[in-house]
Automatic annotation (TrEMBL):
This is NAD(P)-binding protein. PANTHER family: OXIDOREDUCTASE, SHORT CHAIN DEHYDROGENASE/REDUCTASE FAMILY (AFU_ORTHOLOGUE AFUA_5G14000) (PTHR43431), OXIDOREDUCTASE, SHORT CHAIN DEHYDROGENASE_REDUCTASE FAMILY (AFU_ORTHOLOGUE AFUA_5G14000) (PTHR43431:SF7). Pfam families: adh_short (PF00106). Gene3D superfamilies: NAD(P)-binding Rossmann-like Domain.
Length: 289
């Protein structure tokens, strides 16, 4: 039988046994060992970003949370640190720290990644989540260049700066142990629609960056995955936008719930290099797609 083309460099015999497969959810995160591992979540608001940070903290990982509102993040960092103690980990330093960072400023992203490394010098950046986005939607003929520019900065330039910084750190410091980079997309990542021209351009650009980087760094043990969020995430902002009465919620299956969504980020970061997902989409059951 002839070998598949392009795989002759890969398909060489090895006589080492494979590491045993763990039951679902029981694997450590891909990358440095837990005691040396930093999880970075950029774009932490009260919804998805915070629930992603919480789910990693609950596994005993050190978690850096980043967005513009430092005071709010500081309070969340205390709560996220407490989630880590559920596993009775005795940390020498706090297990969650907050960093102010505006993705409209690429230099601030690069500096924040350096600050994170300086804050936990005994650890290495192992899992990174890019969750921020700058959504300026509106009728095409009314879109102003600066709105489009902010969207492109918030996804493409900021995504570039973040991925370059964290992947650069993984290559330099992780001694081949690699890590995971998980990027939050939206319906607009693969489908433009009326009112979303600028946002779709920026989100699809971010997805294209992820595809390229995943191919370039997979062989270096760095797992890049893109998650398409195809639906509305339930939040007070969204309930208010749809004029829902106070205290009400969306019916089950009509909107995404971030604590449920966060399990997907954990699953992706726990994947071993013998079975990696590049892309997943998430939507509520009743979503039209
Ligand atoms: N919400 C939805 O229904 C929905 C639907 C599809 C896809 N998504 C995607 O899901 C991700 C999370 O969205 P989310 O709405 O649920 O938000 P979230 O996870 O609750 O928080 C995102 C946070 O990002 C921060 N952020 C916004 N602009 C920023 C900037 N310029 N620099 C730094 N941080 C910034 C904000 O915090 P600060 O104000 O403190 O900076 C915001 O609270 C996004 O990538 C979005 O495209 C959301």
């Amino acid at each position: 039988m002839s070998e598949p083309r392009g795989r002759t460099d890969l398909l060489k015999p090895s006589f080492e046994p494979h590491a045993p497969a763990q039951p679902l959810g029981h694997s450590l995160l891909h990358g440095p060992p837990r005691a040396q591992h930093i999880v970075v979540v950029l774009g932490v608001g009260p919804g998805l970003g915070l629930d992603v940070a919480r789910i990693f903290a609950a596994q005993g990982y050190a978690v850096a949370i980043l967005s513009r509102t430092k005071a709010r993040l500081d309070a969340w960092a205390v709560e996220v640190s407490l989630a880590s103690r559920v596993l009775r980990v005795a940390p020498a330093r706090p297990l969650s720290l907050a960093f102010g960072c505006d993705v409209l400023d690429s230099a601030a992203i690069i500096q924040a990644v350096k600050d994170i490394q300086a804050a936990w010098p005994e650890r290495k950046i192992g899992t990174c989540v890019y969750n921020a986005s700058v959504r300026k939607r509106g009728p095409f003929l009314e879109q102003r260049p600066e709105q489009v520019r902010d969207g492109v900065q918030g996804s493409i330039f900021a995504g570039f700066a973040f991925l370059q910084s964290v992947i650069g750190a993984m290559v330099q410091h992780n001694n081949g142990a690699g890590g995971s980079v998980l990027v939050t997309g939206a319906t607009s990542s693969t489908r433009g629609r009326e009112g979303f021209a600028g946002f779709a351009a920026s989100k699809s650009g971010l997805r294209a960056i992820c595809q390229s980087v995943a191919r370039e760094f997979g062989p270096q043990n760095i797992h890049v995955a893109h998650i398409i969020v195809d639906g509305v995430i339930e939040s007070q902002t969204m309930l208010d936008r749809f004029d829902f009465p106070k205290g009400s919620r969306f019916p089950d299956g009509a909107a995404l719930l971030s604590p449920e969504m966060a399990k997907t980020w954990l699953f992706l970061a726990q994947q071993r290099p013998n079975a990696w997902t590049f892309e997943m989409d998430l939507r509520p059951a009743k979503e039209h797609f």
